[in-house]
Amino acid sequence: MIENVTGRRLKTTQASLEILSLILEHDGLTLAELDSMVDSSKSSICSHLNTLLESRYLVKHDGVYHVSFRVALLGERARHRYPNDEVVERVVDELARATDQEANFTIFEHGRLLMCYGSSTEEGRDANGTRYRSEYHLHNTAAGKAILAELDRDEVESIIDYWGLPRESEGTITNPDQLFDALDEIATKKYAVVDEEFAPNLIAIGAPVHDGDGRIVGGLSVGGPKYQVDMTRLEREFADELLNAVESLESALT
Amino acid sequence: MIENVTGRRLKTTQASLEILSLILEHDGLTLAELDSMVDSSKSSICSHLNTLLESRYLVKHDGVYHVSFRVALLGERARHRYPNDEVVERVVDELARATDQEANFTIFEHGRLLMCYGSSTEEGRDANGTRYRSEYHLHNTAAGKAILAELDRDEVESIIDYWGLPRESEGTITNPDQLFDALDEIATKKYAVVDEEFAPNLIAIGAPVHDGDGRIVGGLSVGGPKYQVDMTRLEREFADELLNAVESLESALT
DNA sequence: TCAGGTGATTTACATTATGGCAACAGTTAT
DNA sequence: ATAACTGTTGCCATAATGTAAATCACCTGA
């Protein structure tokens, strides 16, 4: 769910992290570039850069600041806490094979889904070389809707408050009441479907994945272009495969 | 080399990052645990935690703070800047195969070597399940010494000042003068060897890897236990394999 | 069910640290 | 030499930290 932070927040840390993010997103920035992107003084930016350099989160080459390789290692380490192993890959790949469509497993965090492993994900780029999205909304993805249907209404509301219901495709549900109606219907099943709500021509079916304590860890989903698989087949044939895969995954998560 | 930061450093950011690191290293911490590890007030720690939560660097479950999966994704993204791809794996695996020993490629950063890819690295653990080290000193590793030999003397000195010359095995060079003598010898060759300087019974040969601009990116090394490969064979047979591998890698780094 | 812990956050306010601004020192390209 | 850009320094207004004490959220035994 959304972490409902009520206490004090530290602007210094926020500013440092924003600078770090900008450098990461732009694959390296100079002081001048940062100065034009960040609303704070040059000297202040320098202080942040000095701090991040000294902490080895950044590296500087020829006046350009880059995120360090050490950050990559820290991230790798952070990943150890999450289901990753061969299990996830095996289950997702098997689901993709069984349905002959793309499958993926996402982690549920802060009211969004973060891509953990996709059957065709290779170096985060698809066949066209465009970068895969790594963050998804819940309201317009199959696994996301299935997760929302399991949450308490106030939790859903806080997620809507935080992330909104942005339209990303023709069929995206952008109205809270409509969403709650949809969730009520889903609640009786163990899965949810999307019909061109995420991207045009794309349909998918998804379900939540729980850990040993029953907490929602993430979501598993599978789907493809409408000319390859229609809605009937999606629910008739894919639902079982999906739920089997969920079970395999959950039993592996102790 | 070491980033020689002279300007102002921000304690707020440093404190936030220290808390983040502690949580990462301990795989989750409570406020009480952090309070006992960090020299700052509980209320202040809360402010840091609030900030890191809101920035989605942390996640909280049942009073325990964990590093978020999003951090893992950020790290993955940071890694894209570095040679990773199949090229590194191919070259390292080929070097390991040709010598029948363990090979690895490390990134040179902030005066240390960070593990990028090792031929037998699997999930960061070795056969015994113990976690692999991901950071290495330069003075007691083969690739590290080869890199030091290419640097200017003042750069080497600043690295020694920063990291020292900690003894990690019987043969570790812990005296600066001895190290400089060793580096002078290495300078005439394109590689360096370690003889039980890193770990008992372990010998290895390593060399620097440069990018298209001639900057040192990291190091490639290969070696194994002394009962499998002696020093003579290391320099006679492995040196060529190593230098070939370095060349392959460098030509792939444009 | 209720009083009494226990630990997690938040508050209030004095003490320090940081942010913005502007001047200046160093480097590099023109 | 000039211009352009990077990074540092000094000075106040603003923000963060330390301390102690007040809330809050749970849990537990009577």
Classified in CATH, the superfamily of the largest domain in chain A is: GAF domain
As a percent range, the share of strand residues of chain A is 15-25%
Named CATH architecture of the largest domain in chain A: 2-Layer Sandwich
Give the % helix of chain A.
40-55%
CATH topology of the largest domain in chain A: Beta-Lactamase
Structural class of chain A: alpha+beta
Measured by residues with Cβ under 8 Å of the partner chain's Cβ, the largest interface is: A-B, 59 and 58 residues
The largest sheet of chain A is: 6 strands, antiparallel
Q: What integer value in Å does the Rg of chain A equal?
A: 20 Å
How many E-type strands of chain A?
9
Oligomeric nature of the chains: homodimer
Strands in their spatial order, largest beta sheet of chain A: 6-5-4-9-8-7
The tally of structural domains of chain A comes to 2
Spans of chain A of at least 5 consecutive residues whose pLDDT stays below 50 are 123-129
Average pLDDT for all residues of chain A: 90
